[in-house]
């Protein structure tokens, strides 16, 4: 009798887990999707608002690194405490989460690593509803294009000039 009750309990528990998984799958399927990916963007915390990166700052720096950038520096100023992270949109259409790098003098700093010719096309952050500061792309850090090194190289020359054995000039 105990065995059959335990077995019945396990079957019931398995059914509940399956029903929960199905409900989760249905909720993701019903969520609005962009490019086939469920909308998992964070919601605004109470007492806050979502702000976007100032477009003029993107325009001002669009030609900063013609040979590519290794990173971008974004700042959010006039704020009592910077958000722990921001969402950054890149030129390939992807969105990345970038965490607070440092907070100094009411300015939150975020460093966005870049490679392969990518650039920042936008960003969003949640700030207090009464915030009146600026959210801007401060600058790009320029660097060489990130391409793998060439596999062919020229070996160093085998001829060399022997060093001089005397470091004192000859006397006249």
Walk me through this protein's architecture.
This protein is α+β, with helices and mostly antiparallel strands and 172 residues long. It has two domains: 7-37; 45-142. 20% of the residues lie in helices and 34% in strands. It is built from two helices and nine strands, in the order H-E-E-E-H-E-E-E-E-E-E. It has a seven-stranded antiparallel beta sheet with strand order 3-8-5-6-7-4-9. Strands 1-2 form a two-stranded antiparallel sheet. The protein is globular and about 40 Å long.
Gap between N and C termini: 118 Å
Strand tally: 9
- Looking at the structure, what is the overall shape? globular
What Rg do the Cα atoms give?
29 Å
Low-confidence stretches: 1-39, 148-161
β-strand percent reads 25-35%
The largest pleated sheet is described as: 7 strands, antiparallel
Number of domains: 2
The structure class reads alpha+beta
| Overall pLDDT score | 73
Strand order of the largest sheet: 3-8-5-6-7-4-9
How would you sum up this structure in a few lines?
The protein has helices spanning 2-30, 55-60, and strands spanning 33-34, 37-38, 48-52, 69-77, 85-90, 95-104, 107-113, 120-128, 135-142. It is of the alpha+beta class and 172 residues long.
Helix and strand topology:
Elements: H1 2-30, E1 33-34, E2 37-38, E3 48-52, H2 55-60, E4 69-77, E5 85-90, E6 95-104, E7 107-113, E8 120-128, E9 135-142
Antiparallel strand pairs: 1-2, 3-8, 4-7, 4-9, 5-6, 5-8, 6-7
List key phrases describing it.
single chain; 172 residues; alpha+beta; two-stranded antiparallel ribbon; 2 helices; 20% helix; 34% strand
């Amino acid at each position: 009798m105990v065995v059959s009750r335990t077995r019945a309990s396990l079957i019931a528990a398995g059914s509940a887990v399956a029903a929960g998984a199905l409900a989760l799958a249905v909720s993701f399927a019903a969520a609005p999707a962009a490019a086939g990916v469920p909308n998992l963007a964070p919601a605004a915390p109470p007492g806050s608002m979502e702000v976007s990166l100032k477009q003029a700052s993107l325009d001002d720096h669009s030609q900063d690194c013609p040979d590519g950038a290794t990173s971008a520096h974004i700042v959010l100023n006039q704020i009592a405490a910077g958000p722990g992270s921001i969402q950054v949109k890149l030129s390939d259409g992807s969105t990345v989460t970038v965490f607070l790098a440092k907070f100094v003098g009411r300015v939150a700093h975020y460093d966005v690593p870049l490679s392969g010719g990518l650039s920042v096309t936008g960003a969003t952050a949640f700030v207090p509803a009464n915030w009146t500061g600026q959210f801007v792309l401060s600058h790009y850090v320029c660097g060489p294009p990130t391409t793998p090194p060439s596999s062919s190289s020229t070996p160093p020359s085998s001829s060399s000039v022997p060093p001089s054995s005397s470091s004192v000039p000859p006397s006249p």
